[in-house]
Design brief:
Tetracycline Repressor, domain 2, mainly alpha, 230 residues, elongated, homodimer, DNA-binding, Arc Repressor Mutant, subunit A
Chain lengths: 230, 230
DNA sequence: ACGATCCGGAGACAATGTCTCCACTTATCT
DNA sequence: AGATAAGTGGAGACATTGTCTCCGGATCGT
């Protein structure tokens, strides 16, 4: 590892490449052509390869960067907001902005999340989200049956850009709009509590689960689900 | 055009290929290897190409099939459910099951949605969703500021499989769980109405928007494939 | 039983993506 | 300003991946 500081222009290029890579991976998937990344960053492909020896190194750097920023923001929300529910909502909006919840999914199969450094930041991320949720639970402003994994997964669903040729700005607006809508469903209901179905997991459950199962079930048979509208 | 009915085994293979293709496109994206589709369908690659002359034909068939089933189910929901809100919720759950809202996004850039037959079914789909939403609005059981485009886009967000090595069944359960959660946010609030941000669009707005954006690039209706742009 | 119909998958071909190499440019220091 | 180390860009050799044809053989329907 080089410890010598980068030249000013080199540092800027590195940052630009990271930003461009994040967008490209989110929009085009983990196997998007790196030419495109270089193009958006306004550099040559050679420069990209100088900073990141191969595709995987770039992907790793992108994830680490986004994760770190998310953790920082989560802590800020927890510290600065008086109302825990507000802190949680602020956290979710920020996550949309950082696009972390879109990046990780996109790169999930290509980046080794168990690698030491990533593992550590991921752990911090889970912990702070657990704290946010727990605080809101204690305050009684968040439905008791909503778990931290729900929050995490919901931000994933909201983060991913909608297909079609939406402009990016429009996409972002819609994501925040839908988050607003969702947030209303997170509050406890005064009247009858309508039960929600499915597995209630914590962030820890979620991580354990992702790591553990590594076999593919080739069962393609589809069964009709007997569904009553609850 | 062949009108002669297919041999029984051929018909079954065709159906299997369609189902497999839908899953593969959703999971692996529109450019997923067709070998994988054949493998999951339990047929050879040659069989795939006999039924669908090229990738685009397969994609188109997948979308048409899913769309048609969705429209049918939407009509059934509208007819059979007494409570309009229940009808809407049932519709959304069904959409998750059919995975239409995951298929269309995945194939958005590869299938020409303006092609006559698709256009017609899509139009029907929008119309019936508009009806569902309008009915719920009239009944006062759906927030007035929630539009049909919101419903459509939200099902898209919920439909797409979460990354990681979730088993498919688990993925489905989570999608329905999160839909349950979301639904609570769709109901009108008795107390203060918390405003939601962002553009409020109808399905029509949505379609118009997607189409106009497309004009920028030359629409490849049925041309040679080899394109090199950038 | 016996055409007609359909299947399977090896492999030639085409498209796409990876990454190196090095002549050239730019930042930084004195 | 001059010297020089640091950084850049992109053409192109190479590798990987996906497309689609072809035809001997299996299977269906009558």
């Amino acid at each position: 590892m080089e410890i010598r500081p980068l030249r000013a222009d080199a540092r800027q290029n590195r940052t630009r490449l990271l930003d461009a890579a994040r967008d490209v991976f989110v929009e085009l998937g983990s196997r998007a052509p790196l030419d495109e990344v270089a193009r958006r960053a306004g550099t040559g492909i050679g420069t990209l390869y100088r900073h990141f020896p191969d595709r995987q190194a770039l992907q790793r750097a992108v994830v680490l960067d986004a994760l770190q920023r998310t953790v920082d923001e989560a802590r800020a929300a927890l510290d600065q907001e008086r109302d825990p529910f507000r802190a949680l909502v602020r956290y979710m909006h920020t996550v949309l902005d950082i696009r972390i919840a879109a990046v990780i999914p996109a790169l999930f199969n290509d980046v080794d999340l168990e690698e030491e450094q990533l593992r550590r930041v991921r752990y911090e991320g889970s912990a702070v989200l657990d704290d946010l949720v727990a605080a809101a639970h204690r305050a009684g402003t968040l439905r008791k049956d909503v778990t931290s994994a729900d929050i995490g997964l919901l931000t994933v669903r909201l983060s991913r850009p909608l297909p079609g040729t939406f402009l990016r700005e429009q996409n972002d607006e819609l994501a925040h709009r839908h988050l607003d809508l969702l947030v209303e469903g997170l509050r406890p209901r005064s009247g009858r509590p309508v039960a929600i179905s499915g597995p209630a997991m914590s962030m820890r459950d979620l991580q354990r689960l992702s790591v553990t199962d590594r076999e593919a079930a080739p069962s393609t048979a589809r069964k009709a689900r007997g569904r009553s509208n609850k």
